[in-house]
């Protein structure tokens, strides 16, 4: 594990902290301010628990059963029961990084001092994360309202020493055994604590934060592949001039145009319109790349604003306020997060679509301005990249299906008490698939564009220095260049890894300088 430590305080956390804990095993510590806030809010809950008046989540049932007052001797059982009964997920296991993000973000809210959870419960949450114990969480079980209930319940079940979890060695074992092996005592939940561990948007938020990190890499990568395709098609870089983008001042558009212009600096291919097929303008998929990529970048920025607000939030119901009140609220509704998750799936689908259109143009001898059919070595004997584009097209079509918004749906639950829900968890799950697919789509364009650039170079045209660096790095990563047909899947897999790990960006930046 990475020995970097993330300190959890009372004022939210950062996206970088979430990624560090979820993906890189960063350790978690509670600040002294968080411990003090936890203790103070617990005193308030204990005082309310001692009063005869019912308080939701402290001395009542939950959801549609909130009208029942629970006697003192049954309250510990009530908290255990809510965790056990709500741990009702089904389907495949959710990825380890998602579960770690889920647990860390719940700890972040607990540590805010607005939930009434005891300091020792929060410390156990940190201990489980630091031990590398990952609860088994299932794909289905959250409607994105009243929080990600089933996923969080499976995490809380592990804190109680029940259910199954994955150890740091990747083996799934009973949670109680794993806790004991790491010297962690199971928690015995008291008033409000079971509810407080379940009632947040943490799963959808964690997936949003990680998707944003991945998409930023992919958008920069797509600027590079767009530039490579423009170069291979002997397009013009005049459309990237900053003065053209200044008169339509969308920030992302200007950034993407600048990235492309820097990749193409010094190219001997751009502007070489064919004598037998003169062009006044390049096709939209080439000429409008900054507009499409840039609009997506602006969407990422908006989604990051929403994620930042949510990271600064304390999502629970009821919440403990500094003046001693414990108030019911609707802050657990996932609508703000769900909307941007869906918005990101839309822009990712459109980015994939424009990448595929450029790839198809590179392979079509009637539109590629002198490149061989399908970039084949001996067309007819060789099929070249014909079926690589089929694979890319299939991915694009799935991206379009994944762009259908989950948040436009709602389904009532809990005997109509919870009669409108966000479906944010579903939006997050499909976005993860969309991000994976987008990396593959960009990788296919990269593979085709680099092959086309190499073919042009063999004809005596000199590619840009950044293009040469991209080609060399991709070949070194195991994706081979032009030649007779061969087993393509390993080359495409190598290109996929190259793109999603940020190696394409890293390859060109020594030439271009840092790209945005």
TrEMBL record:
Reactions listed under catalytic activity: L-histidine = trans-urocanate + NH4(+)
InterPro entries the UniProt entry points to: Aromatic_Lyase, Fumarase/histidase_N, HutH, L-Aspartase-like, Phe/His_NH3-lyase_AS
Database matches in Pfam families: Lyase_aromatic
Keyword entries, A-Z: Cytoplasm, Histidine metabolism, Lyase
Location of cross-link 5-imidazolinone (Ala-Gly): 145-147
Primary location class: cytoplasm
Pathway the protein takes part in: Amino-acid degradation; L-histidine degradation into L-glutamate; N-formimidoyl-L-glutamate from L-histidine: step 1/3
Keyword Magnesium recorded: no
Localization in the cell: Cytoplasm
Keyword Cytoplasm: yes
Enzyme Commission code: 4.3.1.3
GO molecular function: histidine ammonia-lyase activity
Enzyme class label: lyase
UniProt superkingdom: Bacteria
PTM annotation (2,3-didehydroalanine (Ser)): residues: 146
PTM comment: Contains an active site 4-methylidene-imidazol-5-one (MIO), which is formed autocatalytically by cyclization and dehydration of residues Cys-Ser-Gly.
HAMAP family for this protein: His_ammonia_lyase
PANTHER family: HISTIDINE AMMONIA-LYASE (PTHR10362)
Family designation: Belongs to the PAL/histidase family.
Protein name: Histidine ammonia-lyase
Organism: Streptomyces cyaneofuscatus
Upper taxonomic lineage: Bacteria, Bacillati, Actinomycetota, Actinomycetes, Kitasatosporales
Gene coding for it: hutH
């Amino acid at each position: 594990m990475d020995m970097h430590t993330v300190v959890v305080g009372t004022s939210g956390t950062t996206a970088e902290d979430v990624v560090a804990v979820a993906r890189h095993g960063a350790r978690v510590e509670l600040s002294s301010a968080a411990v003090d806030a936890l203790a103070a809010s617990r005193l308030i809950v204990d005082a309310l628990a001692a009063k005869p008046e019912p308080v939701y989540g402290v001395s009542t049932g939950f959801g549609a059963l909130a009208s029942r007052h629970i006697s003192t001797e049954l309250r510990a059982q009530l908290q255990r029961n809510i965790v056990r009964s709500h741990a009702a997920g089904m389907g495949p296991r959710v990825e380890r990084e998602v579960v770690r993000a889920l647990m860390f973000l719940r700890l972040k809210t607990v540590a805010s001092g607005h939930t009434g959870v005891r300091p020792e419960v929060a410390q156990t949450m940190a201990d489980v994360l630091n031990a590398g114990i990952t609860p088994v969480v299932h794909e289905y079980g959250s409607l994105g309202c009243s929080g990600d209930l089933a996923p969080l319940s499976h995490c809380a079940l592990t804190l109680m020493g029940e259910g199954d979890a994955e150890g740091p060695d990747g083996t799934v074992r009973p949670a109680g055994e794993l806790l004991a092996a790491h010297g962690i005592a199971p928690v015995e939940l008291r008033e409000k604590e079971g509810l407080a561990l379940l009632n947040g948007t943490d799963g959808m938020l964690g997936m949003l934060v990680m998707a944003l990190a991945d998409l930023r890499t992919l958008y920069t990568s797509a600027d590079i592949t767009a530039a490579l395709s423009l170069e291979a098609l002997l397009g013009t870089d005049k459309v990237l001039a900053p003065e053209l983008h200044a008169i339509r001042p969308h920030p992302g558009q200007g950034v993407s145009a600048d990235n492309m212009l820097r990749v193409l600096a010094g190219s001997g291919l751009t502007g070489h319109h064919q004598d037998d097929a003169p062009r006044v303008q390049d096709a939209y998929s080439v000429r409008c790349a900054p507009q499409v990529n840039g609009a997506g970048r602006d969407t990422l920025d908006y989604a990051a604003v929403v994620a930042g607000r949510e990271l600064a939030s304390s999502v629970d119901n009821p919440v403990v306020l500094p003046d001693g009140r414990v108030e019911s609220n609707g802050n657990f509704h996932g609508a703000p997060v769900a909307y941007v998750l869906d918005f990101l799936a839309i822009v990712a689908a459109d980015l994939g679509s424009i990448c595929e259109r450029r790839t198809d143009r590179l392979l079509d001898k009637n539109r590629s301005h002198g490149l061989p059919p399908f970039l084949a070595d001996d067309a007819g004997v060789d099929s070249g990249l014909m079926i690589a584009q089929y694979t890319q097209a299939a991915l694009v079509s799935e991206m379009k299906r994944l762009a259908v918004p989950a948040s436009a749906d709602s389904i009532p639950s809990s005997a109509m008490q919870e009669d409108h829900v966000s479906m944010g968890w579903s939006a997050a799950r499909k976005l993860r698939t969309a991000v994976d697919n987008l990396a593959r789509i960009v990788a296919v364009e990269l593979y085709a564009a680099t092959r086309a650039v190499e073919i042009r170079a063999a004809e005596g045209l000199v590619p840009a220095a950044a293009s040469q660096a991209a080609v060399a790095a991709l070949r070194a990563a195991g994706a081979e260049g032009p030649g007779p047909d061969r087993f393509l899947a390993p080359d495409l897999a190598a290109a996929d890894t190259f793109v999603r790990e940020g190696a394409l960006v890293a390859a060109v930046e020594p030439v271009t300088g840092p790209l945005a």
